[in-house]
Amino acid sequence: MAGGRKLQAGVLPNPEISFEADNVFGTGPYRGTGAAEYTLQLSQLIELGGKRTARVAAGSAELEAYRWQREAVRLEILSDTAIAYFSVLAAQRRIAIYDQQIAALQRLTPLLQKRVEAGASPPSEIARAQIAADLVRAERERARATLAIARLELTTLMGGTVPDFPGVVGDLGRIGRPQPFHVLQKALQQNPQLIRFTALRAQRDAELLIARLKPIPDLRAGVSWRHVRETRDDAFRIGLSIPIPLFDQNRGGIIEADQQRAKVEAEFAIAVSQLTLTLGRAYENMIAAAREIEILRAGAIPNVKQAVQSMEEGYEQGRFTLLELLDMQGAATQTAVRELDALMNFHVALATIEGLTGLGFRLNNERTK
């Protein structure tokens, strides 16, 4: 649309042609067209003061502004798609975590039967284990619903209507140390939303110039051919006309254009503040998620795995109760889910930063688990 307006801004005004017939359809000797005198005139409006150049400049700047706006929308869609992709990946892994816990509980069933038959455990422990397994199954069903919604969101962002893929593949456990914030803040200056304001300033400057040039009168030049009936002679007439800028100086239009220019500066300052705040939040969330993951991987995750293994062996030997074992298995699941949530927060923040900077984000000391 802006390209069409730019093209139209450079078009010259159309010439005008007019025809006049004098002394016709009167009375007496002027009855009919016998005494008619004819005038044929061709005129052209000539814009002065560089109005056309200013209009073309405004159209070019508007076109450039919309190009950057389109780029900003493209980056936003890419960022949203990346987040939707990681949402599907995280939902798949959440279901796998619950499946692992259900499988661990199912492995206890034969052992429980033997203990109950031997009188080492009351029959109620079988029901307790079944209840624990059913609660995990309920959580898994909720996770499946979340996965279905995430798949639909990803499909929609990819331009589809119905998910036609069974799942996604990726390394959700990959993290690393982010670059310093000042490096990202410098890259933020290349965000299309901010670069767009450079074109908007140029557009508003051109529009202000147009408003200031409007009071300059335009020249209308014309040439006409006239046929004199009495002498049967032909003559040419040249005419020039120009309005007198006595009353309309377009002061209101100039004030409006000037305020539009000031509005761009205010909107630019707001955009910088908002994008910097968004970048800062994403950066802090990514740092916090990375630290949380490091803490879990350094202590909680290996310790809870070792504890579950020891308690399962001890339960077979009768050294631990079923309740103690179920509590430890639940803690293992909670730890895995906690790590998964932190990984999701990390990658959401990462995709947000990439969408703001427009560059692929590099991580230092990347690790994979």
Protein model, in words:
It is a single chain. With 369 residues, the protein is of the alpha+beta class. It has 2 domains: 1-46 and 216-249, Outer membrane efflux proteins (OEP) (Single Sheet), CATH 2.20.200; 47-214 and 250-367, Outer membrane efflux proteins (OEP), CATH 1.20.1600. Helices cover 65% and strands 12% of the residues. It contains 7 helices and 6 strands, in the order αββααβααββααβ. The chain has helices at residues 2-9, 51-117, 124-157, 181-188, 192-213, 251-316, 322-357, and strands at residues 16-22, 37-46, 175-177, 219-228, 233-241, 364-367. A 4-stranded antiparallel sheet has the order 1-2-4-5, with no helix packed on it. β4 (219-228) and β5 form a beta hairpin. It is elongated. 22% of the residues are buried.
Quick structural gist:
With 369 residues, the protein is α+β, with helices and mostly antiparallel strands.
Q: What is the distance, rounded to the nearest whole angstrom, between the alpha carbons of the first and last residues?
A: 50 Å
- Give the total of domains: 2
| Coarse structural class | alpha+beta
- Helical content stands at 55-70%
Query: Can you write the helix and strand succession as a string?
Result: HEEHHEHHEEHHE
Tell the overall outline.
elongated
Spatial arrangement of strands, main beta sheet: 1-2-4-5
**The CATH C-level class name of the largest domain:** Mainly Alpha
- Low-pLDDT stretches are none
> What CATH architecture label of the largest domain applies?
Up-down Bundle
Cα radius of gyration in angstroms: 39 Å
